[in-house]
Amino acid sequence: MNLIEKGPGYASGLRDFGKYFTPGTVGAGIIAAIMGCTGPALLIITAGQDAGLEMGTIESWLFSVYFFGGLITIILALYYKQSICGAWSIPGVALVAAALAEFSFNEIVFAYILAGVIVLVIGFTGLVRKVMMWIPRAVVMGMVAGALFRFGLNIFPNTVALPAMALPMIAIWVLFTLYRTKLHVPGVLMALILGIIIAIAMGLSDFSNVTLSLAKPQIFTPEVSAGAIIGLAIPLAIIVITAENTQAMGVLMSIGNNPPVNAMTLISGVGGIITGFFGGHNANIAGPMTAITSSPEAGPVEGRYVGSVVDGVLFGGFGIIAAAALSIVSVLPKVLINVVVGLTMVGVLSSALTDAWHGKFKYGAFFAFFFTASLATWFKIGSPFWGLLFGTIMSYILDREDWQERKAAG
Description:
The protein contains 21 helices and two strands. The protein has helices spanning 10-15, 23-37, 39-50, 55-80, 90-99, 105-125, 128-134, 137-153, 155-161, 163-178, 180-183, 187-201, 226-254, 261-277, 287-293, 305-320, 322-329, 334-357, 362-373, 383-398, 400-409, and strands at residues 86-87, 284-285.
């Protein structure tokens, strides 16, 4: 058995590309790219600015995850002719945001690279399914929800601080989210556009000094840290495998594809190693974006890979102009950014909460959520690790019936 699954190949993918280059596939690719390049980008920028990182560092972070995330998309989608999308982990940013308060950026870079190595090794050994059996998905999702919780909490205090800006943004987000199947425009994008218009009208933003330039990526030297291994590298690797890759694999299976599980895991590991040197937390397979390009609106299943390629080109292009995006965001009011980031988290957070408490292992998920949401550190190790550790331990103690059912089911 080959470690890396065989696919139709690039010649086949390119040959049929024009045949399936339709409004449906192109539209799905554009929507996926817009979703990934608006609110999520602000999440990275906010995390970096709150930690006091230099603008050049944040710029390199943005470049790496977007450029290499787009490259992963093009490589896999064209070769396997499946609607596979690469990007980066939104929950991973929440872990990084907490870790930045405890470790230097060079130690963070070390954790990024090690997380990629862990994912790569798991991909080589074929341990993906075993890792998923050791740690219940509900516990992982509880940790993810706890890490994202503070971003969702930001919506209300910022609305109170500047209701004239926040309330219209929330209203238009609700409208476009409610009618998303008809309007086909992400509500977060419309909230961002309206927020910018309001900011200009209120005299809170001045774009006259915005510079439009290409990204200038940097290479960072990793600095070994035992605390960063436990506090960031291990939780980040687990999220990439259990929360990102498996979601995308499930989406692809649901439309009749046979996803290349090993290839998707291996390239996520390589992506984590490469982006780490540029200051990015991981370039991996993206569940939500894969879902968009895999939707029925994208047309026949065999041609939906074209939408992913379109998304990959736009995603990678955004990384190249990351400096311009950072320049624009730097003149936006904090309230606008916090509200958009919070609205971006709604879907991811609600999905994580549903996965955590919808089925089995509820006690483990409960403790994972609250340990992580506390943001408390212990021995200079951040709360995500403790949430994952104690959530799993409490699950083995209190969720015994669920473990017995899993064991009986094989």
